[in-house]
Amino acid sequence: MSKGIDYGMGQTNIDPENGIRYGVISQYSLDYWEEGSEPDYGKATCPDCGTPADDIDEAPEDYGALEDWEDNGNEYCCLKCRYSFEAEEAWGDEPLGWVYDKGGYEAHQTRDDSDIWVTKSPYYTRAQFCSPCAPGACHLDHPMPEGEKAYCFGHDWFEGGVAPYPVYRVEDGSLVKPK
Predict the structure, then answer these.
(1) Least crowded by CB within 10 Å, which of 15, 99, 165, 175?
(2) pTM of the entire structure?
(3) What are the start-end ranges of the H helices in 20-143?
(4) How far is CA 136 from CA 14, 67, 108, 124, 145, in A?
(5) In this predicted model, what pLDDT tens digit does every residue of 16-67 receive, in sequence order?
């Protein structure tokens, strides 16, 4: 079996600090993603124009006198619209995706995709390259001994406490056995 084509040409979806590639895995392959991940609503934006909003307490001096603005609250403001508003207006009702940032892991998933991207982890495995949809990343659902190093989830993320691929420590390259 071929490890595939590096559509990222060694430039994308790779950690520049150590050369470990980002891992991509289906949410359906994991048991604990929904319980562990947090919704991501993105940055605060103006409900009128969609421009990034500023926290009113950190607004630059050139915002002028807020008393002259249409005032619907006082938590966020938009210079373009000269509009201030409450936090409830700064984000949509649905999350843009989900994130996990604990225990040395950094992973995310967008609302329109069932794949999870592992962009930092204490662990790696070796896997086949993803398709052109994730250039340079490796698909954790397709492990292979001669594949590229890719960040992955540890054994505890899977049913029965056993990952479907070999798990190695980033720190020293040692094989991690399931408990």
Answers:
(1) 175
(2) 0.80
(3) 33-36
(4) 7, 51, 17, 15, 17
(5) 999 999 999 999 998 888 888 898 998 999 888 988 888 777 665 555 555 5
How big is the CA angle at 24 (ends 23 and 25), to the nearest 5 degrees? 120
What are φ and ψ of residue 173, in 5° steps? 75, 10
Residues of the chain with pLDDT under 50: none
Contact of 95 with 39, CB cutoff 8 Å: yes
Place of tokens 């070999």: 166
Q: Are 89 and 44 in contact (CB under 8 A)?
A: no
Nearest-angstrom CA–CA distance, 77 and 89: 11
